[in-house]
């Protein structure tokens, strides 16, 4: 495991765009995971995010083991509870669900997670997590018992992000939820981009290159894609080259 806990490998690089592939352990087999690993060798991915709002299988540890055995891409946990912390990973999004008002996901799970994280070598990313209403109730919103931010209210997202930044959170994640009918709007991404000076992660419902480009253009630093790559693994190559072309263009203009 050459890059295990090598923290320099798992930072977001300011001024660059990143692509995170979300791997939901419930939707993967060893075979499908290996085939995504092969694809990600030819078409670079910056991070593997592993997790989901509801995990019903016992696959997560095996999937992370496989990723660490076959790839140097950092594995970042995207957990729904402290029970999904796995020290085999490189890092963890310590999500504070600031779009909601459920204390369990604002501080409760964090109290349970804290001693485990302190004793581990996982890199912790303190992240303000905002669920956005993209048209239908998502697993994340139902399972967290929270109301998402209305789709057409960018000012609420911006003020929520500002509050998260003032509270000391270091990353923002705008999520329309896995398999969302439409992604978070460019207008909302831009509003959050202008409101806070933090790396911004955007995901949920990105299923075309155009939607991925719109999120990057509006200010996302990291785009997260899960669902559409599970259904159509070839999409991984398209997103990888889109993100690479953005980074080439950014280098040229530097
Ligand atoms: C969900 O942001 C992620 O939490 C990714 O969403 O599965 O729709 O790509 P998709």
UniProtKB/TrEMBL annotation:
Gene Ontology biological process terms, A to Z: glycerophospholipid biosynthetic process
EC number: 2.5.1.41
Gene3D superfamilies: FMN-linked oxidoreductases
Gene Ontology CC entries for this record: cytoplasm
Cofactor or coenzyme needed: Mg(2+)
Binding residues annotated for Mg(2+), in chain numbering: 24, 53
Keywords tagged on the record: Lipid biosynthesis, Lipid metabolism, Magnesium, Metal-binding, Phospholipid biosynthesis, Phospholipid metabolism, Transferase
PANTHER family: HEPTAPRENYLGLYCERYL PHOSPHATE SYNTHASE, PTHR40029
Annotated family: Belongs to the GGGP/HepGP synthase family. Group II subfamily.
HAMAP family assigned to the protein according to its UniProt record, in alphabetical order: GGGP_HepGP_synthase (MF_00112)
Name the record gives this protein: Geranylgeranylglyceryl phosphate synthase
Organism: Pontibacter mucosus
